[in-house]
Each structure stands twice: as C-alpha cells, then as structure tokens.
C-alpha cells in the first residue's frame, strides 16, 4: 500500500515534528534553489523556453525569478524557474541517488504559493520537506535500475515530489493526496538520452509543472489510481525492473533525506570537485607562504578516482561548457584564481593565457585507491619547493558540507550577474529568513 | 537513424502524394474526433479539468469544443479537447495496436491551427496524416511489449504524433523536427493502471499538450537528442523490452496506418460490438416480419469469443458506466431499441423495466471457435419462431467500416446533446468540408 502510506505520511506531517536540522536543511535547500534559479534566468535555455511559451502565458500570479519582475501563471512559472534552477548544473544533489531534489519541488511550490498568496514560511518549509522526502524515498526505492534503464531520475520522481509538496500546501486530505500522487506518477518525464541538450533542464521544469497540475486536479476531485505506485502495472514496476519502495517508505519521518542534501560549490561535474577544492586551498597557501602565485608553478601532478578522467578528461576545452568536463581547467582556475564560480567558467576565462598556461602544466593520473570525492595534488614550484594537498572529502560532500557563508558566497556570485551586487545581497538576506516569514511571496 | 528517418519523411510529405483513401480517412478521423470532443465536453472529467485549470488559462486563441464558444490558449485547448474526445471511450481505434490515434494529434493540431489562424484544410489534413502515421508506426514498433509492461500506448506515442503534426503545420525543417520528436519522446505519459479513472482520458489531452509544447519549443531552436528514438538509452529501449521500429518506419508512405483507422459505432468496449450489431439487425428484421417487437421474445442465446465474457460479463449493471461492460445490456438495447448510442447508455435506460426484462432473457456462452469481432445470436420468440444472426465482422471493423451516413448519425447523436439537433447538423456539415477549406478555424 505504498501510495496510501506515502499520502498518509505527507498529510499527517506537522511542522512541530520536524527536527531542527531538517528545518535548517529545508531553508538551505530553498536558499540554494533561489540562487540557482536567478543565476540561470538569463541562460538561453531558459529565455528561449520563456519566449516560445509566451503565447500560452496566463494570468500573472507568480514570478519568473531573475527576470526583472516578470510574472506569469503558476504553471509556467514552475516550468521556467525549474529550467533556470538546473541549467547550470549547479543545484543540489541527494548523493545516494544523484537526484537534484529541490528544483522540481520548489519550482512548483513557490509558484503556487505566490498564486495562493499569504503562505507562511513555516507552511512552505513543511510542504517542501514533504515533497523532497517523497521524491527521494521513491527514488531510492527504484535506484539504481531505474536510472540504468535510462530514466532521468530527478524529473521522474520530481513530478511526484512536486505533487506531494503542492498537495500538502493545499491541505489535501489523504485520498486526494493519493490521487495527486497518481496523476503525477503517470506523467513519467525524462530520458537520460537528453543529457547535454536544452531538454535536460526542461525535465526539471516539466516535472514541477506535472506535479503542480496533478495536485490542482486532485484538489478538485480528479481521480487516478489509488495504488498508482505499487499496482501490478503501477509506477514502480513500469519504470524499474527492481524496486524496494516499501522498505524505503518505512523510514519516512525517521531517516530524513533532506538532511543528506548536498550543495555544489562549483558549477561543474561533481567528480572534479575534490581537485578544485584542493587547488583553491593550495592557491591560498601559496599566497600565504611568501606571496607565491600560479606564475611560480613548474608543474602539477593530480591523482584522482578513475571516473574523473573518464567523465572529465578533456585536456583542451574551447569554451565554458567543455570546461565543465575538464579536470585540467578546474585545477587551473583553483590555482590561478582561487575561485571556481560561474565567472570562472566564462568562455574568455577558459581561453585566457594565464589559465591555459597553468592548465597545460597539470597532469592527471587515475588511482583506484582513491574515493570519488577524494584527490591528491602535488604542486612543483620553479624554486624547487613542492606543496601537497590530500582532499579526503571535497567541500560540498555530506562529510564536509558548505557552510552558510559559503552558500551565501555562491548565492551572491550567481545572483549578482543578474541583479547586481546590491540586489543579490538584499535577496539573499530575505531568502535566509524563510523560517517564520509571514508571506513567502514577499521574499522575491 | 529512426529519429532522422521519421523527421525527414514527415518534413518531405506533400499533399499531392497522399492517396485519395488516405485523405478520406483523414477527413473521417477529424470528423469523428470533433463529434467525440463535442460529445464529451460536458462530462465531469472534462469540466472538472477545465475548472481546475482556469487560473492558468492564457490568451484565448483556441476553442473548447462544445463549451458554448469558450476559448483559451492553444495548450489548454489541446488538453481539454483531448480529454473530451476520449472520455466516452467512443473515439477511433487503430486496431493492430489499439491506439486511439486522432485524440492526441487532432487536439494539438486544431488548437494550434486556430492560434496560428488562416490554416488551410489541406495543410491541416497533411499535418494530421503525418502525425497519425508517426504515432502508429512507432506504436507498432514497440507493440505489444510496451503495452504489456503497462504503458497506455495511445498517449505515450500520442505525444510524438502530436509533435510531428504540429511541427509539420509549423513547417519545421528536418533537424528541428528531430528535436520536436525528441522533446515529445522524453515526456512519456500514461500508465494503464489509471484505466477506469479520470486520468485515462487526461492522458490523451496531456499527450496533445506534450506534443504541442515540443513542437513550439523546437521551432524556437530548443534542442533535444537527435537520436531520441533509437539511442542506447533512447525512447524505444527505455519504454519497451523489444522493438522493431526500423522495420515499421521502412513502410512509411507505402502502408498507410490512417487508412486502417476504425470508428466505434457504439460507446462501449469494442468486444461487445458484434452482439450489438447483430441485435440491431434482428430488431429490424423482427419489425419487418409482421411487426414483432422485443415483447415477443421468450429468450436469447448468444455465442461469443471468450474475451467478451471476461471483459464484459456484467449481468446486472446498475448505471451507464457499468453497462459499458455488459454484453447483456448491449444485446438488450439492440433488440428493444434498435440503437446503441450514448442515449442508450444513460442510467435511466440501463435501469428501465423494458431493457432489464429483455436483458435478463439473454444467456451468453463463450465459444473459442469465434473471432473477437464475431457473434452468433439466436432469438426464440414466444410463438415458437426462431431468428438467427451470424455477425462475421462487426460494423466498425476494417472489413465492415462505418459508412459516412453511419458516421454522421454518430456525430449528430453525440453533438445534439450539447448543441441541439440543428447546431449538430450545422457543425457536421462544415466538418465534412475540411478538404479544400480556406481556414480550418472557421469550422467551429
């Protein structure tokens, strides 16, 4: 009875039952989502969708984040903000399933919260937690077969997470919540074959729309199957060849997936993160030790998990997109600039002489004894000195989470490009204040 | 190269290359779709969706058929008309895949044609044919495994058919058409577990929306995978365990699936049709032979394919919905009323004494020697006479298609309930005139 179990849990979840670390994780997840959505607002994948769909836009109740106060109906806002939040691949990650959990859920929830009006921050947090737990537990229930088959798990479970979140916000009773889950589950959106195209981030936005639509229909009495998840021809069996959904749902409310949500410090493939982390630390140490800079570097040796070279072994990236798949560029910006934000992945940085010079001095070797979030870096300086760094867990992992200050730097870095520095700081401040807010619509 | 093959074929298809029987089939398919969409316009599954989604409705460019001139944006019109056209399970059937082909395709196409304005009837027919061939060939390519797994094939392939049709109408070039196919393919909507709920017809409308969205995005340069159908983790492999898509696409333009499209004469499960057909013929013969009526009947014996009793063996249906699954009700309305339209499935008819009396005199026996579209009926009259009827192929099958006059009776029967008799006749007349029409938007 997975569908009933999930619906029942979500309907009965109360704010007072949320542990403090869960509330904190929800605030951080929301905060990081807003930063990513603003940061992706001007990306062509976002603006093209927005322009193409303008003829369908309805009554303007909900914000298009980072688009100068532009508003549209809640369904299109969910779609466009969802696309924007994922387009730089810079959003959050539930590491045990590689679901990006907040995009589908918050994009639907925030758009509907604005449309409804007067939604309190705590009610928003409660709905966000319900939606993220739902999608991550279901995702764990079909992982890894579901992903292996070729489904983009973020959006396939994201539709259901978004439905649960919006359903919770709209206070659906249990049976209606089952129908909402069902109507979302039948819209299975996202093939991995789309990776590398505009459609990858479209999946996130469409999942948000699917879930919002499901909840809004169910709230009016629309019916789906009451056993949509577990039926003989239900979601779990159709989208995966194996599942342990029941086991996963048994831990709802005792093991919180949102507390395991991780935030990317760098806008590139997560396997490059240990190298970047180590190189940024080495940049600081070189500066601290007698003002050394990257110009003093003779050569650099990097040892990494084999997957790193398989996925990100591009030696001479020619633009920002290719640079995301280059451990060499990642190391170089860390060493030269001490930073790896969106600005360091701009085309002109990727092709700049100072970066290319250091990039070409880096050699990388696969080392099966290392974990995927681990790296060993040795910098040989021209004066004969060597510096070494062993990153055991990269920043942004569950073991070494980003601090609030680091999250804020990431937020402001992204939002400044769109809103200017002052605007970014001001939105940052109000978004941190989600908990206890009287009206979440006032946040942006 | 299935994606490229399909896109290329659709882009190059010209009206002059369509055989006359294909054009005729397209006109009949469109005509039958309009009748079904009007006939389903007032069903609660349609009106609930319409009411729930009103807050999202955009600029009114496109008609909600049968809703007194109501209009909305093309995307929502595609959804709502798609739901309406399928809600009575009275639409068309591509018998070798049991796809209902016109719902997803025409719902998207007509809504977009109205929004674009000035679309000629012949261009509409051309796009409709392209979309229907695309969905049926892809459907045959994954049939039957895809359906066995649990996918509602009408909507899963319908999304792609709708994208091809709208893409054709918008004159996409080949690469854009590949992207449109791709963006549609990644939105896999429809689990069979939803059968028997509002969500079954939602699938048809959502498929129309998915396809329209895909085409509109692709027209603006949005990218998906260029190998979405055939890739290692592409559509065919993800949604089916076996496929022969390439073989099916090889017959594009030489074997026309739309010419195999069948129309339901009766608004109930297709397996009951041979019995209804035979009973209507017996009703006429009893009348012709000395004015006998159902009141003269002692008992009736029916022999049918075993599936008929498995699917429609309900002996004492209590309302119209249950009656759709009762071969006994089907036989009774044929014998008593000589007709089996939507009016004969109203609750009060199902419970009326004259129908119940005859219904209870019918016994049905499974006979493995009979085909699924075959039935043998023997009526024993009180005066000792017996009448027999052997229906070899039910009306509405490929072997015994509905005549234009019968299609028109079906159309008027459905549309009259919503538009009144005169309105129904007048819409019927203009819809028959699709070919050569200067502006399809003027049809409704």
Automatic annotation (TrEMBL), chains A, B:
GO terms for molecular function: lyase activity. Residues 4-246 form the MmgE/PrpD N-terminal domain. Residues 266-433 form the MmgE/PrpD C-terminal domain. Belongs to the PrpD family. This is 2-methylcitrate dehydratase. It comes from Mycena sanguinolenta.
